Fold this sequence. Notes:
Blueprint: H1 17-28, H2 32-42, H3 45-54, E1 63-64, H4 65-69, H5 79-92, E2 97-102, E3 106-111, H6 116-119, H7 129-135, H8 138-144, H9 147-153, H10 157-162, H11 166-172, H12 174-198, E4 207-211, H13 217-225, E5 230-234, H14 237-240
Parallel strand pairs: 4-5
Antiparallel strand pairs: 1-3, 2-3
Helix pairs in contact: 2-5, 7-12, 11-12, 12-13
Bound molecules: S-adenosylmethionine (SAM).
S-adenosylmethionine (SAM) binds at residues 167, 184-185, 188, 212-214, 217-218, 234-236, 239.
GO molecular function: O-methyltransferase activity; protein dimerization activity
Domain O-methyltransferase dimerisation: 31-121
Pfam families: Dimerisation, Methyltransf_2
Amino acid sequence: MVSYELDMDVAVPQLSRDEELYVQIAMVGTLILPLTLKAVLELNILEIIKMGSASASTQLVMMTAEDITAQLPTNNPQAAAMLDRMLALLASFNIASCVIEKKEKVIRRYGPTPFFKLLTKDEDGATVATLSLLGMDQAFVSAGQHLKEVVLEGGIAFEKAHGMKAFEYIGTYPSFRRLFDKAMMDNSTFFLKKMIETYQGFKDVHVLVDVGGGVGAVLGTIISKYTHIKGINLDLSHAIATAPPLPGS
Ligand SMILES: C[S@@+](CC[C@H](N)C(=O)[O-])C[C@H]1O[C@@H](n2cnc3c(N)ncnc32)[C@H](O)[C@@H]1O
């Protein structure tokens, strides 16, 4: 342990009364934001809002929760009211934009923000949303319940929760494998596409082995630019089973 004189420049943040109140409220609801974002992503709401805006070339189209709910497979009469509250929360974190009309009742309309670029599909169908959904999946949420235990007693939280190693779990549950592979693929494609714009190191490579290459997204991106490379994707059998064949590999 190290003690510092209090007049030294040690960073001990001071909170204003308003900030204290904000932290107090935020601490009660720490899980609410990720769970709301998870539901909104699973319901494809950000894609619906983006499509609404894309349909108008010169105007920003803002949609009410009723407009959006009309495109969901539901007859729940409360759905729009629920969605409105969820989107209002996301708007307060700038994940969606919101305009408020005050008529006989308050009407909120929602539109895109720069976050949509990451959280909705790009021209290749890739989105950071899949990585976000993976992180919020029950498999990891239940592992998180064991953090206190592993700090005090040692071990690995994921294994405490599921009785097996993470990659064994991924191989056991095909729907989780699909989510995992898509999340890896979207994330790697996103960074790889940027990397190979400037990195020249693959020019003289003839054979490239990707160890733990998943469904081959990284190799595929590299080989699509450096077509002379022979690619070898090395991964567990359950990953290779769903990996598409790629020209040059
Ligand atoms: C974090 S993922 C990376 C996926 C891939 N590189 C990508 O960017 O899409 C790690 C990969 O390692 C694989 N893996 C884990 N243990 C392995 C092993 N013993 N031998 C080969 N691959 C393994 C997993 O199946 C998984 O696909």
